[in-house]
Amino acid sequence: MPCTVQSADKPFTTLAAKRLREGKLVAFPTETVYGLGGNACDDETVARIYATKGRPDFNPLIVHLAHPKDVGHYATLTPLAQKLADAFWPGPCTLVLDRKPDSPLSLLVSAGLDSVAIRVPAHEHAHSLLDEAGIPIAAPSANRSGRLSPTQAEHVEEEFAQIKEDIWVLDSGPCGLGLESTVIDARGEVPVILRPGAVTAEEIALTTGVVPTIAAHDPESPHSPGQLKSHYAPERPVRLNAKTAREGEVLLTFGKGAPSGIGTLNLSPDGNLIHAAANLFAMLRLVDRAPYTGIAVMPIPEEGLGVAINDRLRRAAADRD
Ligand code: TXA
Ligand code: MG
Predict the structure, then answer these.
(1) pLDDT tens digits, 182-219
(2) What are the C-alpha distances in Å from 168 to residues 8, 19, 65, 127, 259?
(3) Which ligand gives the minimal distance to the CA of 143?
(4) H or E element: which one contains 267?
(5) What is the distance between the alpha carbons of residues 195 and 191, in angstroms, rounded to a whole number?
(6) Smallest Cα–Cα separation from 119: which of 182, 175, 173?
(7) Where are the beta strands (DSSP E) in the chain?
(8) Are the CB atoms for 184 and 93 separated by under 8 Å?
(9) Site residues for ligand 1, CB cut-off 6 Å
(10) In sequence order, which residues have a C-beta less than 8 Å from that of residue 68 and are 6 or more positions away?
(11) Best of 28, 97, 180 to mutate for ligand 1, by most ligand atoms within 8 A of CB?
(12) What pLDDT score does 219 carry?
């Protein structure tokens, strides 16, 4: 069996923590999406995470910690990073920091960079697992590279059905937020948003007193490979800003008064961007199958969480190489 789904309650969390210490892979829920976790200090384990995902080696991983106070063992907190950590940890925020020169983290988690991305998740079961494991856990989203992030345990099973690796999946139901964390480069004095997410630019500006810059997409030199243009992609082509479906397409709608009925699915009938974010990946997965040949998506407002939703949708719709 490539994947074994277990409850995220005790005693399975305790057993899963032991598996992590033994170098095995455990997929676990966070408040954003499910992650594919392994010991971040062990090169061989980190290499197996890359291999399982089929992930390009220039795409570094996020290291997950149980407690904000532990970060100092692995990376240097700037005054800016400290403010962000105080405000958003535990939570859906990932900080890119300078690695400590003597950091015990595998160099592979940083994929050759001098920096490391660190996150302290708020999800109860993620926290218990990390706390019991007692080691830093590298965990990219638990999907094959370039595909949609999983927001339910069944999605993880689907992703790795063909993989030989012995993976446990801790099932805690659907993830509350459903969109990956905001990745912020916090090494300087101005926060740089490398990947928009659940923590918005407005919240970052309010907390730090500094308006963040948004990193431009540069395909030659991805600072953060979440910036690769085609990413988070379903198998079927995605067409944005659609008003109606064309032949063969399913229509993803948003808000009150949107077209309804067969061949449509509403991301949030109330027009609530938080609900739409939580539903986005699960609904894209749901419609990425026969009889549909394409996915048309109605416009989503570019405000609040809509910025992150539109970012993921543009990548899903981008040309694929
Ligand atoms: O919500 C999340 O962040 C989920 C959960 C499981 O924590 N994880 C996740 O990981 O989305 P992943 O590997 O799919 O995305 C990590 C993002 C990528 O865009 C990667 O390029 C960026 O973080 N990243 C990681 N380390 C970095 C570094 N040292 N410098 C710049 N970007 C980095
Ligand atoms: Mg990912």
Answers:
(1) 999 999 999 999 999 999 999 999 999 999 999 875 54
(2) 10, 9, 19, 17, 40
(3) 2
(4) none
(5) 12
(6) 182
(7) 3-7, 25-28, 35-39, 62-64, 75-76, 93-99, 115-119, 137-138, 167-171, 182-185, 192-195, 213-214, 238-239, 249-253, 264-266, 294-297
(8) yes
(9) 30, 32-33, 35, 59-62, 94, 96, 110, 113, 115-117, 119, 139-141, 180-181, 183, 194-195, 223-226
(10) 85, 89, 90, 120
(11) 180
(12) 46
Instruction: State the residue for tokens 């939703």.
Output: 309
H-assigned helices in 195-304: 201-208, 273-287
By CB atoms closer than 10 A (0-12, 13-18, 19+), residue 19 is middle
36 has which bridge partners? Answer: 27
Q: Which token pair is 4? A: 């074994």
| Predicted local distance difference test score (pLDDT) of residue 28 | 98
* 255 pLDDT higher than 90: yes
Tokens of 196: 């928009």
**Whole-prediction pTM:** 0.87
